[in-house]
Amino acid sequence: RYDPWYCETKLMVNFIITMAAGSYHPTKHPYRIVFLPTTRLRMCDALPSNLTGLDPVKYESIKDGSLNTDYLVDAIGQFVEVSHVEVVSVNGKDIQKLSLELRNQDDDRLPMVLWGKFATDVNDAIQLRGEHKIIVVLRFGKIKVWKDERSISNAYNVSDVALRQLYWKKEC
């Protein structure tokens, strides 16, 4: 069974470090690792489990434009609106698109768009869970600006999306 919260620690050899450039930075670190044909990975002792690297941003900082859109961000929220999966043409290719709206604990709202396999996988998972409240954790999401409106989406195959179902206890 795949568990997105489970991480393995690996030792890497034969790689290079370059300046981070472009619009899809997974971190604010000024450098990035580049894999070579000779790069090798092997298992090693695990890091402490509290090093998840999850750093959710505030919805308002996405919507007000105070975050640099070159950096990928993490977001957490409950699905409150979900569209049907659409097939749209992007750069001459048909791709699946799922539009959602997230809500945080303060009832702030954030538009989210998932593309490709992320769209179909999340839609299928939502259908299976029915009417239950679902929390989404998006790691390495891309801040998008379209017609002066900001949203968050998956960034190719770099992003990670995890869903959790909320169970409410009734007090007697």
Layout of strands and helices, then pairs:
Elements lengths: L9 E10 L11 E13 L15 H5 L9 E10 L3 E5 L2 E11 L5 E7 L1 H13 L4 E13 L2 E6 L5 E6 L7
Parallel strand pairs: 6-8
Antiparallel strand pairs: 1-2, 3-5, 3-7, 4-5, 5-6, 7-8, 7-9
Protein name: Replication protein A OB domain-containing protein
Organism: Brassica napus (Rape)
Task: Report a brief summary of the structure.
The chain contains two helices and nine strands; from the N terminus they run E-E-H-E-E-E-E-H-E-E-E.
- What's the count of strands? 9
Q: How are the strands of the largest sheet arranged?
A: 3-5-6-8-7
SS field, number of helical segments: 2
Approximate shape: globular
Give the SSE string.
EEHEEEEHEEE
Average pLDDT, rounded to a whole number, is 84
Largest sheet: 5 strands, mixed, barrel
Model regions low in confidence, pLDDT < 50 over at least 5 residues: 168-172
Question: How much is the radius of gyration in Å?
Answer: 18 Å
Q: What structural category do the secondary elements indicate?
A: mainly beta
> What share of the residues lie within helices?
10-25%
What gap, in angstroms, lies between the N and C termini? 36 Å
Query: Strand share of the residues?
Result: over 45%
Give a quick set of tags describing it.
single chain, 172 residues, mainly beta, 5-stranded mixed β-barrel, two-stranded antiparallel ribbon, 2 helices, 9 strands, disordered C terminus, NA-bd_OB-fold, Replication protein A OB domain-containing protein
Question: Describe it for me?
Answer:
- This protein is mainly β.
- 10% of the residues lie in helices and 47% in strands.
- Strands 3-5-6-8-7 form a five-stranded mixed barrel.
- A hairpin with a 2-residue loop joins strand 4 and strand 5.
- The two termini are 36 Å apart.
- The C terminus is likely disordered.
- This is Replication protein A OB domain-containing protein.
- InterPro entries: NA-bd_OB-fold.
- It comes from Brassica napus.
